[in-house]
Each structure stands twice: as structure tokens, then as C-alpha cells.
What does this fold into?
Amino acid sequence: MSDKNKIGWNFDNSYSNLPKSFIYEISPVPVKHPELVILNYDLADKMGLDFSNIDNKELAKIFSGNSLPKGAKSIAQAYAGHQFGHFTMLGDGRAVLLGEHISKNNQRLDIQFKGSGQTPFSRNGDGRAALGPMLREYLMSEAMYSLNIPTTRSLAVVKTGENVIREKPLQGAILTRVASSHIRVGTFQFIRTRENLDELNTLVNYTIERHYPEISKSKNNAYDLLSKLIDKQIELVVNWMRVGFIHGVMNTDNMAISGETIDYGPCAFMDSYNLGTCFSSIDHMGRYAYGNQPAITKWNLARFAECLLTLINPKKDEALKIATDVIDKFDKQYEKKWFVMMKNKLGLIGDDKKDNLLIFELLELMKELKLDYTNTFCFLMSQKFKDKKDYQNEKFNNWRIKWQKRLSKDSDKLMKYNNPVIIPRNHNVENVLKSAEKNDFKPFNDLLEALKKPYTNQKDLAKYQSPPPKSDEKYQTFCGT
Ligand code: AMP
Ligand code: MG
It folds into this structure.
């Protein structure tokens, strides 16, 4: 048996069997001098893959797409999407799906290369990606995973040995992304433009079988699928709000039907608390700012509902009414979940009619005093760190006394489970990426390691806990191309 077979790939490709219009068969474009940068052995192990006997040269070939695993059948997926509110035809312009690997615990996982060359959906793009943004996605997605937030994962990054031309030449790279699927709201929007009921039924049935088999026998599966996605997305965005994560580009093509966080482009974590926090250089209006994320989630879900109308009810008016009613319930459902999440962050067990006030007073104070979101909860949990002076404020102290009276025996435990003591802070992320681009991967690996236990008080944590040094320059993120 060759080394390659010992890895344990177990492909069973179902998406590539969908109608021709959904996909385009295409191979990754070979690269000149692939070189492995990082391989996620923990994830590989969970997937039932063993790379321990494969040398680095062979690994580089595998994760660049120069040598495809047995059973892979690479395709680019067609989709569309509302980007900053404008509808566009898209598709995998710099990604290919190798296929679906069935993991040892029988999970069906998409294996996708990002940065693997041009496809018919590339429009004017080169189909490639740069090292910094691919390592950034690796770090951020793995951090989210450890924060217990549904997300795609990262299996490997290779350098291609070729430059990509952006504002200046950058080292090219390919990320291997693992997802429970890459079906997006935008996939449904693409099928909607085709006005083909058979294709829509095919996509709905496929999605339900893959992600929500429990509703496969329902009387109105399109309606149930909509309700399922609403629940999933509320759970997701509440989690983002919990840890201060700002996705940054919540276009409908970046909203996965699985409910996983997908596409780590201009994402970043909030430092000081402010609902208007927005880091993305292209988000001039703050459409995807921290505090707008729930409203945008609802907007995207309404776009999803539009795709399903004909299946929800053949009578147009009826369908519209039913869909509007469900979407209208979003706000209440979200608020309820958000409130529970905030109570958990503050260790508030049981009900007290003043809890609402306690929460909003703290948020107000954090905004007014420009307090660091993550560290405020660390401070309340009595984690030691340098910036205690920020909290020596009379108003804050008065609030804290009130809050302390409301605590109970297990409050500590609840808080520890809900408040990370470490997040990938913008300045730390930038620094480790800068070193990695100069071939020094130690800082990157150290940060990655620390982020694996975000709820544990580890040694050397302090260096990752400080808010960014005060500077006049606003931190900016880019779309990750
Ligand atoms: P994103 O902002 O990463 O969600 O990408 C939006 C769309 O642009 C997707 O269809 C991508 O495939 C496409 N895209 C992004 N970067 C490139 C690139 N360098 N070459 C070709 N297509 C790209
Ligand atoms: Mg995208």
C-alpha cells in the first residue's frame, strides 16, 4: 500500500452529483514550489486522517492540489449573493471543493482549497490568495472552534512558491478548509435566479438530508428549513456577540446553511465596547458593525425566505404572509437568547426583574468609560491583569456592588464557562502574521496554542490580554484577498 492510501481519505462526493448547473468540474491549478506551512494534526486525527508517515514534500503536494487524493472529484460551486445589499452572481472564484470526506465518526465534511487558482467564477480575480490572510483565517477559525462557536475549520496552509500581486507582491498560499458544507444562502439565491422548481426542490431536499434530516418527513419542508436556519443563525450571532466577534462581511454568500461561521476575511474581535465597532476598510457605512449583526442576520434570513416562497405555499400572497410572520418573530427570539447569554456572562442564575437593568447599565458604562469588552468580564471574574486602573471609577464600583449582591453560589462557574480570558486580539494577530510572513512561525504557533484553551487561566496569558496600545490610527481589516 502506498503512503497516500495510508492517510485514510474516505471520499463520498454527493454535491458533485447534483444538477450540472450547480457546479463546474475543475481541478486546482498546479503551483510551482509548494511548501507546507502548517498542518492541523488534532483536526486530522478527529477526521480519521493520519499524516504522520508522510514527508513534508508530499504533504505540500497534497495541500497545494498538485497531487489530488484518491476519491476526490474537484468542483467549483455556483452561488450568488447580496454583497453590501447589492445582488451579484458569484461562485467559487478562488476555491475548489475536493469532495466530501466521511470522518471516523461518520460526519460528512467538505474539503475545500481556498486560493487554488482561477475558475469560471473568478470574474476579474486571479483565483489566488496571500499567505497572511490564509494564516489569519486558520488562526481565527481555530480560535472560534475553541471558543465553542460553530465554525468551518482549517486543516492546512501551504505556500505556493508564487507571488500574488495585490498592492504589492505577496507570497501566495492555499488554505484547506473543512466545513460541514459550503451551502450558503447565496446558493439558494443562485437557484432562485434560474426559476426552476425542480432544481429548487433538489437543493432543499439535499440540504435537509445533509443538515436537518429530522425535518425530512415534514409536511412543509421549505417552511421548516427556514425555521431551522433562523434558530441556527440566532444561536450563532448570539455567540458572536458573546465574545465580541465581528464577522465584517455578512453578505448572503457568506452565511452558511449549516449555521457555521464561514469566510474569515475582514473579521476581528472588538476591544473597547461600542456597538458601532467596525474594522473593515470597505465597510464605510458600518453595515456589518458589531451591533448591527443581529439586524443583518435577520435581513439575510429574509433573503433566504424569498428563495423558498414558491415551496412554502404555491399561492404568492399566502407564502409571503407565512414567511413574513416567521421572519417577524426573529427580534423576540433573538432578544430572549441574547438576554440569557448576557445573564450567563454575568453569572446571574435564576430570575430577577432587575437583571435587565443590571445588564444595560453595565453596557452603558463600558461604552462611556471605553472599557475593554473581554477584560471587563475578566475583571469581574477577578482574573489578574494590568489594566485594573480602568475600573477604579465610582460609577463602575457602584454598579459592581449592586451586581455582587445578585450573585449566587455557582455564579463563578457559569461566568468561567461563558467569558473567554483570551481572544485573538487585533494587534497580537497582526504581529504574529508579520513574523510568519518573514518565516518566523513561533509567535503564530504560540498564539494558536494559547487560543486552544480560551476559558483557562494559563501561564503567560498576560501578553495576550492587553488591549491594543493607544494609537491615533484606527485598526483596519481587509477582505482577505
Ligand atoms: P469573499 O469576499 O471572500 O466572500 O469573496 C466574494 C467572491 O469573490 C467569491 O465569489 C470569491 O470566490 C471571489 N473572490 C475573492 N477573491 C478572489 C480572487 N482573488 N480571485 C477570484 N475570485 C475571488
Ligand atoms: Mg465568501
The two ends are 39 Å apart (CA to CA). Residues 185-339 form one domain. DSSP finds 17 helices and twelve strands in the chain.
